[in-house]
Amino acid sequence: xxxxxxxxxxxxxxxxxxxxxxxxxxxxxxxxxxxxxxxxxxxxxxxxxxxxxxxxxxxxxxxxxxxxxxxxxxxxxxxxxxxxxxxxxxxxxxxxxxxxxxxxxxxxxxxxxxxxxxxxxxxxxxxxxxxxxxxxxxxxxxxxxxxxxxxxxxxxxxxxxxxxxxxxxxxxxxxxxxxxxxxxxxxxxxxxxxxxxxxxxxxxxxxxxxxxxxxxxxxxxxxxxxxxxxxxxxxxxxxxxxxxxxxxxxxxxxxxxxxxxxxxxxxxxxxxxxxxxxxxxxxxxxxxxxxxxxxxxxxxxxxxxxxxxxxxxxxxxxxxxxxxxxxxxxxxxxxxxxxxxxxxxxxxxxxxxxxxxxxxxxxxx
Amino acid sequence: xxxxxxxxxxxxxxxxxxxxxxxxxxxxxxxxxxxxxxxxxxxxxxxxxxxxxxxxxxxxxxxxxxxxxxxxxxxxxxxxxxxxxxxxxxxxxxxxxxxxxxxxxxxxxxxxxxxxxxxxxxxxxxxxxxxxxxxxxxxxxxxxxx
Amino acid sequence: xxxxxxxxxxxxxxxxxxxxxxxxxxxxxxxxxxxxxxxxxxxxxxxxxxxxxxxxxxxxxxxxxxxxxxxxxxxxxxxxxxxxxxxxxxxxxxxxxxxxxxxxx
Lengths: 365, 146, 105
Fold this sequence. Notes:
A: alpha/beta, 5-stranded parallel sheet
């Protein structure tokens, strides 16, 4: 059967960054992804990233994706595409399907970087064609250059809702409004400012009551919420739209970690059930690491750093890096991650991550 | 503002971000450590060159030249929509809520490769509106609401 | 609707080099793009109807997980159109319920 030293599941920013760290020091690494193209969510991100120079601030997400891919090609990293991983076995075998055939790959270390998926929202009319995840709209406009509709209501004011609204307008759609159930905007003020400048009204304390239409979305009824999150009678407004995008958070894609027997903990601010992990990104199953959104929903910049951390830890465990060298690299990564997890937005994530690691370490003998 | 063109950094939340610091050729912007610090503009060093406008990932930096002429101001802002206007065009100028404020004349449209897609547009407007105008109204959305 | 010009992505220079047949009508497409993208470009958003009530369904998650976008393609039912690439000459049909295999009686 096929063998490798490190099997990385997921060719998004976390997976690619992890693979680069292992390959850099001579490790044999195989990245496996279910999609036809690598890069995960990076290629949909056509906006400039924040952070510092080391975090590649000011570079558009899809360019960062191109840089990572170029690096993996330069290092001869094996990237298997169109290969959904359906199983992880206790003997560290990875089972995937390619070309309708089952393949087994034996690995010494496994890094699960499977990412996260968008949450859905159920309401009358939510199944009509034209109601879709914000990520689905983003993929269509930024990767496939197709507009999924012309007049859009965006539900959710986190960074995804704000950014995708902006990108829908760049692609030529009209974002009629953005609604947010909470009494304040969830994402960055500068992202909200961009869409406000374009004339998009942001209605906080509003939610969707129902979507109307026969064969597809024709209009949407929104309603205001009071301080108890209850609909305010008489506050309903009907907006003429043909598309409703849902941006209400992401949940880590953890099936493979469950399968492998990793222990979990529920951390709501990180997206739900996340596998316990230590400061090396290793789960409670020795040799199995996680990185990126699967370990808690954050952003691409932190995903890349966690990938580097997991990759470095694997390289060390395989003897490809000496203890001191690894310690230095990991310290630099932790510094960069710390810089990203500061401020009113980052603080909450840092506390959640610290809590997660604390619970994970406490549980280990 | 009285002395000449100057940058306006409308970045008001502590997020980890500092490209503006390195973008200024005159050292007029400091962020320092931690990088969540709000950028500080040193008015005495700022020449109003506008180099900081395109590199800001949040599109939060503008330039205002109050006394561009006796009666008009020049406002420069980042713009990432198509189609771009042409120099000399008359455009509907909007405020931070996208509301129509005044007509403006396009004085320059800079979109070099180095900006990576972030065009920087300057418009000449009546002086009274120089603290409000921050954009060109989007087609068909000249007023707030529907 | 296709986004021919884009302020960041530039002009769309891809050739519409493929032709697929959707419910008997020819639709032009780009080889390799997801079937769902070609359909959306042509303004087609209803991809199937549900088995019990015949309710219309279309694209939802866009990453191949929810199966709301499935259609019958070249006689095979339940093909996820958001992750299946277009090939010239593909026959795409609005799926009714669970669909039928081409060789089913």
